[in-house]
Amino acid sequence: MWSAVRVGAAARKLPRAAGTSLPPARRRQHSAPRRGLPIDAMPTPGDLPGTPSAARLHEYIDMRHRQLGPVFRDRIGPVSAVFVADPDEMRRTFGLEGKYPMHVLPEPWVHYNQLFGVKRGLFFMDGADWLKMRRLMNPLMLRTDQGDIFSSACQHVAESLVSKWKAGGTRVIGDLEAQLYKWSLDTVIAVLMGPLYETHAPKWNDEVEYLAHNIHKVFLETGNMSLISAKDAQEGQLPVWKRFITTVDASLNTARSLVLQMIPLSTGESGGLLKGMIECGMSEEDIIKVVIDFIIAAGDTTALSLQWTLYLLAENPLTQGHVAAELTQETDILQSALVRGVVREALRLYPVAPFLTRIMPESCVIGGYELPPKELVLLSLFTSGRNANNFPEPERFWPERWLRTSHSTNGSYKAVHNPHASMPFAMGARSCIGRKLAETQMITTLAAILRDFEIELLNTENIDMVLRMVAVPSIPLKIGLRPRTQTSL
Ligand code: HEM
């Protein structure tokens, strides 16, 4: 996944250029669906001033979309790519991704896997092997009746976190990011173990803490290698490569050791995810590689998304009050449209993976231009999610925009022109397999926190979004906690 967020004030003020609509060729596609303008005719920055920086790539690309329109081509380092911010063209891209969708993998990881012969899970798999594994895992992760397993595991972990804060009289959440990485991992382990989690979790606590710490470091070190090829870093034995492999080794070994301890416990009465994987005939090695990747994929994505959600709620006390009041009335919080709206809004403004990538399998037409096979397409979620054509008042955190209109017969939302302009989990066959778990986890934990606490933002400096492989706050967030009273509702 590539990363993402916050439009700089100067970039926001740029007028949208005349080229923001798609070229006539797109409209002609009805009569000649496969023919478009030649790719060389696609807008490019040419001599326009501006240099991309790894940490602010989303701002640079956003500026380019404003100058060049919803589809343009640019070179980022050694790579040339087509950038797309039009929601309909983004959907078309997924429609053209083929049977075995291909995405870009982080180069340091690929190099590590090749160098040490490591086999990885779904995110790294390809072709028929990927499809076979995905078909086995989809029912276990995305079926609606999985909801109960997910929700009791998420609730258990959320309540433990809040109880810890209450018991410790916490007034400011110390090292929020690290605590949320641990929370993310605890949840995945609770889902894997099902009802047996409570009995076994205490003995794994130190290992999980160590793993959370290392996964966090893996993302930091991967970000540190964004300006240098991993192969060069390895061949030169640079300190950044040495630190990277130390943390990846520690993460993979600890995750493997945990999974090996969990597998033999998951055959009896336990109703966890691991039991489902064993029962559907997966080999031990397949289980290990898929589960390790779940643990790693869940760590940063959910931890950072919840962090952004807490930030937005802390910055918007009125909305926070409405959400807290809704939570006291709603019996099934997972179905609360307002709370779901909070999560959708946070992921719209701060998509942890601000660029989705696809390598197009065949020649195809995107945005009215004909792309050759193997062309790299990057979908600019940061730009599409903050475009006023898709979301009125796009910079405003406004969860109610996702409520259905009372007169709606076609499922329209109150203040959303095009819901596909925000697709934080991607779309189609290769979209996030952890989506259901991530949503359940975030909603359940928000409910647990807001029931007991009012949260406030204690940072006095401006908080920006920067890319450290994924979208992170530019400085550590300081979130204050005050016990919630009836009068504060
Ligand atoms: C808010 C939280 C999350 C966000 C925003 C997110 C986002 C994404 C996105 C955008 C992709 C697709 C990448 C692509 O199309 O190339 C993806 C893939 C994936 N996600 Fe998530 N994710 C989240 C949570 C999780 C969790 C909790 C898990 C673990 C259970 C998980 C496991 C995976 C895996 C294994 C893939 C690869 C799927 C494949 O290639 O078939 N994600 N995620």
TrEMBL record:
Residues given in the record as heme binding sites: 432
Cofactors: heme
Gene Ontology MF term list: heme binding; iron ion binding; monooxygenase activity; oxidoreductase activity, acting on paired donors, with incorporation or reduction of molecular oxygen
A Pfam family of this chain: p450
The entry's keywords: Heme, Iron, Metal-binding, Monooxygenase, Oxidoreductase
Annotated region (Disordered), positions in chain: 13-48
Cross-referenced CDD domains: CYP24A1-like (cd11054)
Family statement drawn from the similarity comment of this UniProt entry: Belongs to the cytochrome P450 family.
Protein name according to UniProt: Cytochrome P450 315a1, mitochondrial
Originating organism: Frankliniella occidentalis (Western flower thrips)
